[in-house]
C-alpha cells in the first residue's frame, strides 16, 4: 500500500516537473510591459527577458532609472516614464504601448511597481498614509491592467501581478498588507473573467528580499519621523521602550533576490501562484 502511494507521488512529481520544463516557441516575437523597472524585481526581470530576446517595454518612474536600464540592455528594450498612481500617466503609457504593439497585441503585463512606506502601527498613521500606498500598490495595478486588457486579449497573453507573502499573512500595520490582499483578490476575479479569452492571470508572492521596499534604513527613518510627530497622548500610551523594541525588530537582514525565474512567461504550462520564499526563486 505504502509502496504504491510512493510510486504515485513520484509519478505526479515527475509529471509536474515535465510540464514546468515545457518552454514556448517564438518568445522573440512577443511584447512584455513591466512596471516599476527602476530597481528591484522589475529591473532584474526586464534585463533577463531582454537577454532571452523578448521585446521588453519597461516603465520607470524616473529618467535616471530609465537611462540606467537602457545602458545595461539591448536596443530592443524600450522605456517609458510611468507613475501608476496617476490615471493620466497610465493612459499615456497605454497609448504608447498601443502604438508599438499594434495588431500583435501585448503578450505579457507585469504589474510590479509598488511602495511599502509608511509601515507603522495603524493608530500612528493617517488616512493619507493608507491612501498613498493603496493608490500605487492596488489602484495602480487595477488602472494599468484595465488600460492594457484590450491589447492582452488580442494576443491571448498573460497578466502577472506581484503581490506578497503579506497578502496571505498580515505582517504590519499601514496600507501595504491591505494593498497586497487586494491584489490577490483582484487577480482571482480577473483570472475567472479572462479565462474565456485564453488569457492567463497569475500572482507572484515574494517574501522578505533586499529591495528598496525592505530597506531597513528607510523603514527606520520613516518610523522615527512618525513617532516624533505623534501626539503626546499616543506616545505615552505606547511608551518609549515599546518604540525602541519595535525599531530593533526592523533591523533584520533581508534575503538576497537572485535572478528571477521567468517561467510565468516562457512556460507552456504555468502556475496560478509563484511563491518566492526567503532567498529563493519562484517555485
TrEMBL record:
Residues 1-21 form the signal peptide. Keywords: Oxidoreductase, Signal. GO terms for molecular function: oxidoreductase activity. Pfam families: adh_short. GO terms for biological process: steroid metabolic process. Belongs to the short-chain dehydrogenases/reductases (SDR) family. PANTHER family: PTHR43313:SF48, SHORT-CHAIN DEHYDROGENASE/REDUCTASE FAMILY 9C. This is Uncharacterized protein.
Amino acid at each position: 500500500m505504502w509502496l504504491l502511494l510512493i510510486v504515485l507521488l513520484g509519478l505526479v512529481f515527475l509529471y509536474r516537473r515535465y510540464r514546468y520544463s515545457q518552454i514556448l516557441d517564438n518568445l522573440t516575437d512577443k511584447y512584455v510591459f513591466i512596471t516599476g523597472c527602476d530597481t528591484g524585481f522589475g529591473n532584474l526581470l526586464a534585463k533577463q527577458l531582454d537577454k532571452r530576446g523578448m521585446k521588453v517595454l519597461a516603465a520607470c518612474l524616473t529618467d535616471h532609472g530609465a537611462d540606467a536600464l537602457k545602458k545595461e540592455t539591448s536596443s530592443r528594450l524600450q522605456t517609458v516614464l510611468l507613475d501608476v498612481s496617476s490615471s493620466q500617466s497610465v493612459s499615456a503609457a497605454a497609448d504608447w504601448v498601443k502604438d508599438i504593439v499594434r495588431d500583435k497585441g501585448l503578450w505579457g503585463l507585469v504589474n510590479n511597481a509598488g511602495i511599502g512606506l509608511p509601515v507603522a502601527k495603524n493608530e500612528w498613521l493617517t488616512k493619507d498614509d493608507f491612501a498613498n500606498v493603496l493608490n500605487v500598490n492596488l489602484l495602480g495595478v487595477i488602472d494599468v491592467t484595465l488600460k492594457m486588457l484590450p491589447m492582452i486579449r488580442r494576443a491571448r497573453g498573460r497578466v502577472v501581478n506581484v503581490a506578497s507573502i503579506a497578502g496571505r499573512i498580515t505582517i504590519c500595520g499601514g496600507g501595504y498588507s491591505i494593498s497586497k490582499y487586494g491584489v490577490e483578490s483582484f487577480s482571482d476575479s480577473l483570472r475567472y473573467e479572462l479565462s474565456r479569452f485564453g488569457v492567463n492571470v497569475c500572482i507572484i508572492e515574494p517574501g522578505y528580499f533586499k529591495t528598496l521596499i525592505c530597506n531597513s534604513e528607510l523603514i527606520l527613518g520613516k518610523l522615527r519621523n512618525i513617532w516624533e510627530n505623534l501626539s503626546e497622548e499616543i506616545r505615552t500610551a505606547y511608551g518609549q521602550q515599546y518604540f525602541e523594541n519595535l525599531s530593533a525588530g526592523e533591523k533584520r537582514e533581508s534575503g538576497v533576490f537572485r535572478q528571477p525565474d521567468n517561467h510565468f512567461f516562457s512556460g507552456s504550462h504555468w502556475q496560478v501562484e509563484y511563491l518566492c520564499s526567503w532567498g529563493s526563486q519562484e517555485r
